[in-house]
Write a structure and sequence with these properties.
D-amino Acid Aminotransferase, Chain A, domain 1; Rossmann fold; 5-stranded antiparallel beta sheet; 27% strand; 4-stranded parallel beta sheet; Dna Ligase, domain 1; globular; 32% helix
Length: 301
């Protein structure tokens, strides 16, 4: 099988592991820097060029599109889909997951557990939305933030209003969420591959940080999740339309609540914590499911 991975940095742990796993199973694997791909649009001939040369057909594409280039990356991925390449995570599903507000709306519609969340445009409504999520304290998030960047814990009404007014004054879109105190600075990352949770870890934030992201100095340990947590992760992946994702949850007094569904989960933390070959599982899933022209949206959704 011929596999292409869309990624800007081939040397990242996750990207090296996917390449190693694919080549160990006899597949051809190319890493294409997403920003060096260009789209050539002509009737009946959807072309992708890489470094100025036309790209050959690939059986499957692994999109590892950074949050900072989501729109451009999705345009490239859609072109591959229109050419018939099977995508591990489809463009529509990735776009859905990257929009925090849209993803929460979808999950809420289908009854999945979420923290109370509010969204408003007018900074004059700051106090209203803080009270709507039973705050303070409240967590304030950039809608397009990632890896814990742009996430603020505001512990008083005045500080929460100041943060909201500052963000909105800069025309930055934010969500305001209830603070799940009982989570104690920890969360759960459940890694879903092909509709099954294949690994899970507990992430604990640094001593002086309520965020548990490993990129921000947190630590990870293997954890046994409950049947409800497993079901929540699987249902979230299904509703988002993602074959592979990391579902981040908090343990609240009323069950698991989803914080985010990550369409390009890192592999280093979870492979290190669990000792599992997650990259190999992903490649095996691709080999078993990739079929020419079987991308559901075919780049047009």
């Amino acid at each position: 099988m011929k596999i292409a991975m869309l990624a800007r940095n081939a040397n990242l742990y996750s990207h090296r592991r996917l390449k190693e796993a694919a080549e160990a199973r006899g597949h051809t694997f190319d890493t294409l820097n997403t920003l060096r791909c260009t789209v050539h649009i002509a009737s009946h001939r959807p072309e992708v060029y890489y470094n100025g040369a036309p790209v050959d057909a690939y059986d499957a594409v692994i999109p590892r599109i950074g949050a900072s280039i989501t729109n451009y990356g999705l345009a490239i991925l859609r072109q591959f889909e229109m050419r018939g390449s099977w995508s591990l995570n489809e463009s529509v599903a990735i776009g859905r997951s990257r929009d925090k507000l849209r993803s929460l709306q979808i999950l809420a519609k289908h009854g999945l557990g979420l923290p109370l969340t509010a969204y408003a445009n007018d900074p004059k409504q700051a106090e209203e939305i803080i009270k709507a999520v039973k705050g303070p304290p409240v967590v304030i998030k950039l809608i397009e933030g990632t890896q814990g960047i742009g996430v603020v814990l505001a512990e008083t009404m005045s500080s929460a209003k100041s943060v909201i007014e500052a963000f909105r004054g800069a025309n930055v879109n934010i969500l305001v969420q209830e603070f799940i105190k009982e989570a104690g600075g920890t969360d759960i990352r459940a890694l879903v591959v092909g509709g099954k949770v294949v690994a899970a870890m507990k992430r604990t934030g640094a001593a002086d940080d309520f965020r548990s992201n490993l990129h921000r100095g947190g630590s990870a340990d293997v954890i046994k999740i409950t049947p409800e947590e497993r079901s929540t992760a699987v249902r979230a992946a299904k509703r988002m339309g993602l074959n592979v994702c990391g579902v981040d949850m908090l343990r609240s007094n009323h069950g698991p609540v989803i914080m985010e569904v990550n369409s390009s989960p890192g592999l280093e933390g979870i492979e290190s914590a669990t000792g599992k070959d997650i990259a190999g599982m992903i490649v095996d899933f691709i080999a078993a499911n990739a079929k020419d022209g079987q991308t559901k949206t075919k780049g047009t959704g």
